[in-house]
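Lay summary. Proteins are chains of building blocks that fold into shapes, and those shapes determine what they do. In this project we predict the shape from the chain. Here is one chain we studied, written as its sequence of building blocks.
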Amino acid sequence: MIKNFIAEIILNEEVAEKVFRLTVDAPELAEQARAGQFVQVKISDDFTLRRPLGIASTAGGHVKIFYRAVGRGTEVLSRQRAGERLEILGSLGNGFTPRDGKILLVGGGMGLAPLLCAAEKFSTDVLMGGRTSNEVTFWQKEFRPHAEEIFVTTDDGSVGKYGFVTDALPEILSAKNYAAVFTCGPEIMMRGVARLAREKNLPCEVSFEKRMACGLGACLSCSIDTAKGRRKVCKDGPIFNADEVFDYD
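And here is the predicted shape, written in a compact code that computers can read:
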């Protein structure tokens, strides 16, 4: 059920350069939310549009969100402190499909946020990528209590395997029997992950990120072309079967 919640901020702290971890007290929202869903956060009355942010955790009745302070709205959000209240609309969109067996999560950058919620709720390993060690160190700490095994790649080789997640993925898929692959990150990365999963006959679900205005499917700003026609990321997604949204030819 989609509701408008007034949630008190517990923590809003910078965990890497321009990357913030926002934790709010929202037990009802936490109980209903599924891994892969998102919320629309009202920054203040000065901003007409809410900001769509993925749900990264629902543990203990708290909703955790990661965001990058890149524009005026998220810069204002980054200055809000514990004890202040936020208006949050959610939970929105469709979540990942529960599976029997272990799931491999593959993410890059801020795309790891919705995958963290999946790691909380399912049996998982995770393959994470970033440009440098600074981009993955805090994610390793977040995933460690939930994922059984963590694989890391960095563009500069400063931690984990040198290269991209798609360089490490074939070996990982060959070494273990996974029930499915869930991925989120840059579209070019997700396409490569989906192609490799398809070669192994593994179901693959992708979490799409598009600019959204309403978050409810009314404004059509986040529409994409799929094998089933035009779909709205906010309402029909953000989780899609990879074969729906990617053409591998």
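What the prediction tells us: Residues 3-92 form a domain with the Elongation Factor Tu (Ef-tu); domain 3 fold (CATH 2.40.30.10).
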